[in-house]
Amino acid sequence: TVDIPECPILKYTENGNYVYFVHSFRIDLENDKLGTVFVSALSCFIMLLMLLVGVFICGLDYMRDYIFVDTSLEFGKVVFRLILSVFGLIFYELVMVLMRALLVKILCKDSKIKFRSKSMYFYVASSGYFSKKSYFAISFLPSFVSGILLFILCFVVPPEYFIPVYLILVLNSSSIAGDLYVLYFISRFDKNLLIKDTGKSVCFYSNV
């Protein structure tokens, strides 16, 4: 985390009064090594916990055969299963990005949106300033809705498609680690707070 002084922001409120917000804190998502370690550890912990739940649900032998490929299956079925998993993950990432972009536009119509990627992850960067409630909705609502739908889908699809869907659910659950890290800092401020997420950093602006 890095503290960087910036100029005040002028916000026009509904009652016609002007309120000043001053930059007070910034989380550097690219260079915050301690934060990166914490987020990675939390993400791995959630992922491991979800995998253990998956083993409990369908059994260790079934999980092992799926992940390390059951040699009793035909080659075509193995390839199809792997392709289905890869495309499922890509589709999930795109849907999550579009859901967050839609929420950004709904909550801040004038915000400019940029789609970016890092490693295998896609994310949304915006120029808008959001309240604590709005930022919370943008961060967690897509994961919450997707998590419920994926959980239901796990028990609706045929048994042979359970693992691909469940792996996406695992990814969905572990991806909230970074949002939980930011939420910790948000909780330290009062409700009169504006938040700007550029994708590379998250800036907090307190009411004067």
Features:
208 residues; four-stranded antiparallel β-sheet; 6 helices; two-stranded antiparallel ribbon; alpha+beta
Please give a structural write-up:
- This protein is α+β, with helices and mostly antiparallel strands and 208 residues long.
- Helices cover 54% and strands 19% of the residues.
- The protein has six helices and six strands, in the order ββαααββαααββ.
- Strands 1-2-6-5 form a four-stranded antiparallel beta sheet, with no helix packed on it.
- A hairpin with a 5-residue loop joins strand 1 (9-12) and strand 2 (18-28).
- Residues 1-6 have low confidence and may be disordered.
What is shown here, in short?
It contains six helices and six strands, in the order ββαααββαααββ. The protein has helices at 33-58, 60-67, 75-107, 132-154, 162-174, 177-186; strands spanning 9-12, 18-28, 113-118, 121-126, 193-197, 201-207.
